[in-house]
Amino acid sequence: MKERIKASALLYAVTIALLVGMVLGSMVLLTHFRGLHAERWLVHERVASNARSASYAALYGDPTNDGFDLHVDLFGDGSDSAEVRITPWGGLDLIRSRAWHADQQATVTGYGGYQFRDDVVLDLARTAGPLHLCGDARLVGDVRVPMADVRRGHIEGRPFTGDELVHGRILRSGEEHGTIRINLAERVQKLCGGSPWEEENPSLGFFKMAYTDRT
């Protein structure tokens, strides 16, 4: 009888030990896999940040008529690298960068161009006459018109229906347009003439990210 009790107790103890071991082993494995997942997530975030950094760095490259490729070693040790392709796309530049680290990579696509910081929405030459607003026309922002003269007008018998002529400041036209407009006109002229880049490479004023594709 005592031997049976000892055997039952031993079997019970072994069973409990196996269950405790399985639970502890599961907890250890779960902690390990959670750590691996967190590590891969951190690497992925790092790669995505590198792709964005390379995209901004490409804005100050030396483009050619057919665009250019740029290889960036961000930290100088070869562990965080990125490739950038910038291509003329109308008046803007299409930028695609790919960064990688180990077996993970991220791709960022966007476009760059000039950023207008002038709040003037309408700029008429001094040789033009006064500005007449008719019907449901609305101007939101500052305007430059000859002699700062904005009047109510009629079109097909319909008077101006708004409460204010201009929702902004009414300024007097200057003799010359801003330099940024001259630069933009030269760029568009060269684009239409088949040369998509200026002779000198001005820094692009902004970068608009379209999407981030992570694989």
Describe this structure in words.
This protein has 215 residues and is of the alpha/beta class. The chain has two domains: 1-118 and 178-215, no CATH class; 120-177, no CATH class. The protein is built from two helices and twelve strands; from the N terminus they run H-E-E-E-E-E-E-E-E-E-E-E-H-E. The strands form four sheets. A five-stranded antiparallel sheet has the order 1-2-3-4-12. It has a three-stranded parallel sheet with strand order 5-7-11, with no helix packed on it. The termini are far apart. 13% of the residues are buried.
What features would you highlight for this structure?
2 helices; 3-stranded parallel β-sheet; 12 strands; 215 residues; disordered C terminus; 30% strand; 2 domains; 5-stranded antiparallel β-sheet; single chain; elongated; alpha/beta
Note the topology.
Layout: H1 2-58, E1 68-73, E2 81-89, E3 92-101, E4 104-113, E5 120-123, E6 131-133, E7 142-145, E8 150-152, E9 154-155, E10 158-159, E11 170-172, H2 179-192, E12 206-214
Parallel strand pairs: 5-7, 6-8, 7-11
Antiparallel strand pairs: 1-2, 2-3, 3-4, 4-12, 9-10
**Oligomeric status of the shown chains?**
single chain
In helices, the fraction of residues equals 25-40%
* Biggest sheet details: 5 strands, antiparallel
Mean pLDDT, all residues: 72
Give a short summary of the structure.
The chain has helices spanning 2-58, 179-192; strands spanning 68-73, 81-89, 92-101, 104-113, 120-123, 131-133, 142-145, 150-152, 154-155, 158-159, 170-172, 206-214. The protein has 215 residues and is an alpha/beta fold.
